[in-house]
Amino acid sequence: MASQIRDSTRNSLASGRVSAILQLTQARPINALHLNNDWSTSIIPLDQYQEKLQERRREWEASQPVQFEDRREIEHLTRVLQERERELQEERREKEQVRNRLQQQLQEIDQQLQEAQQQGQERERQVQDLQRQLQHIQQQLQETEREVQEGREREQGLQQQLQESQDRERSLEQQLRERDRQERESSWVVDRNDIRMTERILGRGGWGEVRVARFHGLEAAAKVLHETIISEYNLSLFSREMNIASKIRHPNLLQFIGATTEGNPIILTELMPTSL
């Protein structure tokens, strides 16, 4: 019974068809011939198992506040920039209203000036006064336009800073994902040069060939995946399955040793002394 469980689990892990984890709970070693009443078994769905792994990862990330300090700083800066941008937009609307009002006044004064000129020399003094008012309003209009232009330039500068902050945030997120991937793989990745393949073939299948190999002086079973099935999608599945296999420990399962990531991937497990 134990051999069947081990063989079924090993084949499921190797073929990528794992849908659940079999959990055996016992304080004593397994009897190879029968199971007594002290044993209890439970099936843990694979998605629940993955959720537990993700929950542990979130707990780990929460316990590392220093790694997210830059992100919090960026979020704070982004909020400040967005608030300042809203203030500048409101200021620009107010200045545009002032400019429109001054333009309207300018049109009214210009109309009055034309009427005064038609009335003759007796209103020359009024014309001069109106001209001075016109010049003053024109200066105010130019100053307002200059302030509006400066506001636009400040707005463009803030937008550029916001874009740079967003680019930095994306870069930090990518670095965090890459560091997380490296940390996950570092627990099971082995050097291909440490593996010495022999001519002894244990079996062949649709995914690869299993040979006896030597790893740091010990014999192990090495499964070399076929080159024809290597793709970006299959490699991502391979990495995920190796992460799962590296965390599984049970006396009825073949002990997972490690795997390579360069070239054709190689999976190392313990070598059984006898065949199933």
In a few lines, what is going on in this structure?
Keywords: ATP-binding, Nucleotide-binding. This protein has five helices and seven strands, in the order αββαααβββαββ.
What is the count of DSSP helices, taking H or I runs of 4+ residues? 5
Uncertain stretches: 1-6, 12-36
Strand order of the largest sheet: 3-4-5-7-6
Q: Determine the strand fraction and express it as a percent band.
A: 15-25%
Mean pLDDT: 77
Shape: rod-shaped
What is the tally of beta strands?
Answer: 7
Cα(first) to Cα(last) distance is 11 Å
GO molecular function: ATP binding; protein kinase activity
Protein name: Protein kinase domain-containing protein
Keywords: ATP-binding, Nucleotide-binding
Question: How is this structure best described in words?
Answer:
The chain has five helices and seven strands; from the N terminus they run αββαααβββαββ. The protein is α+β, with helices and mostly antiparallel strands. Helix 3 packs antiparallel against helix 4. It is rod-shaped. The N terminus is likely disordered.
Which secondary structure elements does this structure contain, and how are they paired or packed?
Layout: H1 2-15, E1 20-25, E2 40-45, H2 46-62, H3 69-119, H4 124-185, E3 195-204, E4 208-215, E5 218-225, H5 232-245, E6 256-259, E7 266-270
Antiparallel strand pairs: 1-2, 3-4, 4-5, 5-7, 6-7
Helix pairs in contact: 3-4
